[in-house]
Amino acid sequence: MIFYKRLPRLKALSFDLDDTVYDNVPAIHKAEVDFCLYLQQKYDLPAFTASQSFWAESKAQVLKLDRSLEGDVTLCRAKALQHGFLKLGVPLSSFDEALELVNHFIFMRSSNIKVDIDVIELLRRLKERYVLVAISNGNVDTRILQLDEIFEFDLRPKHGQWRQKPYSDLFDEFLQRYKLKPSEVLHVGDDPVTDVLGSVQAGFNSACIYKGYAGKSHGFDYYRALPHVVLKDVFELRELL
């Protein structure tokens, strides 16, 4: 644990999820591969649709038309699916069907993730002393990960309402709900931009897990703001107990 700025008295901790409290990389990769194959088999699509490249191109085309979708990964994926099926000449029956498919993807990716029992125990102990919330740009299902009982709530970007980190929308919403001052909260995350820069700009104290849970996140070369503290892993938060 390396301190760059003094931490004041804290009342709450906010946590990023992916690559902060678990290793997300292998889980999301497997889910992407399995989901493409699922779509190809379920709808009897051409063989090339079992490749991620087709759906990635569909997403790129959707974002080219509306960049604001980028922050809401659930809505963006649904729009990309709708666009892809239309391009294949087999349009989905409704947008609700696209959302149902995205929910299946979320189930697949969440089921691939295993949160270490020691991480869960640490979070439970921290919850005895602080308000704990999740502030994430992703769409993992915390119920499947058994994290829903730990975090008071789980804030995610929502198109037209809350922009994604590093914008301050999610941080501001948390403060408003709990009537807290930014200086009373420590945000814990792995990403130098979305987590460190985002939380610092929002006035929060910032704790960065250097290079993430499994050492796969960006390092110091990507930092655009100085965190209050850099952690070698999430378990160094035991110092706050």
Give a summary of the structure in a few sentences.
With 241 residues, the protein is an alpha/beta fold.
How is this structure best described in words?
The structure is a single chain. The protein is α/β, with parallel strands linked by helices and 241 residues long. It has two domains: 2-23 and 114-240, Rossmann fold (3-Layer(aba) Sandwich); 26-112. The protein contains seven helices and seven strands. It has helices at 25-42, 52-65, 73-87, 95-111, 117-127, 169-178, 192-201; strands spanning 2-3, 12-15, 131-135, 154-155, 185-189, 205-209, 229-231. Strands 1-7-6-5-2-3-4 form a seven-stranded mixed β-sheet, sandwiched between helices. Helix 2 (52-65) packs across helix 3 (73-87). The chain is elongated. The mean pLDDT is 95. Pfam families: Hydrolase.
